[in-house]
């Protein structure tokens, strides 16, 4: 499931990082907990904040892998239910704190070696035009509120901006006689 989103230079870019982390980072993420652990509809559920790249308008992407005996339609319907809840129910302070901690830790972990620091600084310079944006992201993450998350879900996770693709196994061919 892909939702159109603005490029990384947009002031709301950080909200896509928050949404993807909230939806699919760790055992307690919304998609993993509900679709994989509780309902056992999916084997895997992953959200990607920016695909295929961020310099131009791109997609907020959600991958769902159906469990044995389940369909892509069941996964899709269950994911939409979660997205709709994000539009009507604020996430908890605990959820927001967890997401912010994960995002900050990811930035900091990316700087724990010379090669990691070089890669992150160069990538940030290429995307944003300023290597200091890497550190501004930490400030931007901290400013995000539950209201911001709800507003982003309402604005971007809509049927109008959605494209859905799925793969399926072809039906077995009958042997020719």
Which characteristics define this entry?
alpha+beta, 4-stranded antiparallel β-sheet
Number of distinct beta strands: 4
The run of helices and strands is EHHEEHHHHHE
- Shape estimate: globular
Mean pLDDT: 93
First-last Cα distance: 42 Å
Q: For the largest beta sheet, what order do the strands appear in spatially?
A: 2-3-1-4
Structural write-up:
- It is a single chain.
- The protein has 177 residues and is an alpha+beta fold.
- Helices cover 52% and strands 14% of the residues.
- The chain contains 7 helices and 4 strands; from the N terminus they run βααββαααααβ.
- The chain has helices at residues 13-24, 30-38, 72-88, 93-109, 114-128, 133-143, 146-156, and strands at 2-5, 42-51, 58-66, 162-163.
- It has a 4-stranded antiparallel β-sheet.
- The chain is globular and about 65 Å long.
Q: What's the helix and strand layout?
A:
Layout: E1 2-5, H1 13-24, H2 30-38, E2 42-51, E3 58-66, H3 72-88, H4 93-109, H5 114-128, H6 133-143, H7 146-156, E4 162-163
Short description:
52% of the residues lie in helices and 14% in strands. With 177 residues, the chain is an alpha+beta fold. Helix 1 packs across helix 4, helix 1 packs across helix 7 (146-156) and helix 3 crosses helix 7 (146-156).
């Amino acid at each position: 499931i892909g939702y159109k989103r603005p490029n990384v230079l947009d002031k709301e870019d950080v909200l896509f990082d928050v949404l993807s982390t909230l939806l699919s980072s760790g055992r307690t993420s919304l998609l993993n907990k509900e679709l994989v652990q509780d309902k056992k509809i999916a084997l895997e559920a992953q959200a990607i904040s920016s695909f295929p790249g961020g310099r131009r308008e791109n997609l907020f992407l959600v991958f769902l892998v159906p469990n044995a005996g389940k369909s892509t339609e069941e996964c899709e319907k269950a994911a939409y239910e979660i997205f709709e809840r994000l539009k009507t129910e604020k996430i908890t302070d605990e959820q927001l704190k967890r997401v912010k901690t994960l995002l900050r830790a990811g930035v900091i972990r990316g700087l724990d070696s010379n090669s990691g620091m070089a890669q992150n600084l160069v990538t940030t310079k290429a995307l944003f035009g300023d290597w200091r944006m890497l550190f501004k992201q930490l400030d931007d993450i901290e400013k995000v509120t539950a209201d911001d998350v709800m507003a982003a879900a309402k604005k971007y996770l809509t049927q109008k901006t959605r494209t859905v693709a799925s793969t399926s196994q072809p039906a077995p061919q009958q042997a020719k006689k």
